[in-house]
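Example record

The entry below shows one chain as it appears in the dataset: sequence first, then structure tokens.
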Amino acid sequence: MKIVFAEPLGMDECVVNARTEALRKQGHTVVFYPDRNENEEVLIERAKDADVLVVSNIPLKKHFFASCPALKMLSVAFTGVDHIDLEACKRQGITVCNAAGYSTQAVAELAIGMMIALYRKIVRGDALTRMCEDRQGMLGGELCGKTVGVIGLGAIGQRVARLANAFGCTVLGYNRSRKSVEQVTQVDKEELLTRSDIITVHLPLTPETRHFIGATEFALMQPHAIVVNTARGPVVEQGALYHALRKGLIAGAAVDVYDVEPPLPASFELFNAPNLLMLPHVGYATKEAFASRMDMVVGNIERWLSGTPQNRIL
């Protein structure tokens, strides 16, 4: 089998070679590309004769798969697979496995960090200090005692809930199906939105969750509420978020995900929104998470080759 790493996944070639040594000893060919290139024609050139392809969150659409007829298995180094044309994979009989859970702790910690950054005005404080200013009446807030509403009680949502509990927060949870989560009171969507001081989103992107938070939902929130999105950009409707911040319907927001992947265009609407903390999609990007991801990606390939696939999406 020819196994192609279409991008480096945050690792150098030595690390990848060490982790795939067993595959090479079994007679498989492993090809590693040290740069990330999202151009479809470049990706096709890299993958056109691959049996197995490793890729993270680079979009792969119908034309790509049609141009890679040898492809039998896709090991996605990412939890979400909404960037992959699964229908095309299904038509070609391609097995798709993801890396579910590799960044659970990383994303959960970032969500909590963004809450603290908003409450303590960390970005503004840094700017004032660098301008040789004092705090100029800057008054922050504390997480302790706040009500945190967690939308989506998957692995990441549950981890955020536990961390929020540790900070002394009351935690409300919304999930489409009931889950037993310690120290989380599950409520309906409307109650969570109206009662929460902090709303943190942890839903996958599906047709049902697209724009799950929009104008109607922002209108239900308290004016002192803040919203954190480390899930998928389109789960929170961008125009509605912009309007909510400009009109003071909520006190602030922090986002790590957008309708498009960073770098964002200079004309991006949210750049003009007040009280908004923006990060360039780094929730999953920690050394620890990347090491775990590499183990999972290669493990998915090894298990598929042995006929016992794991983390299978398709």
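Notes for this example: Residues 248 and 308 are 53 Å apart (CA to CA). The chain has a mean pLDDT of 97.
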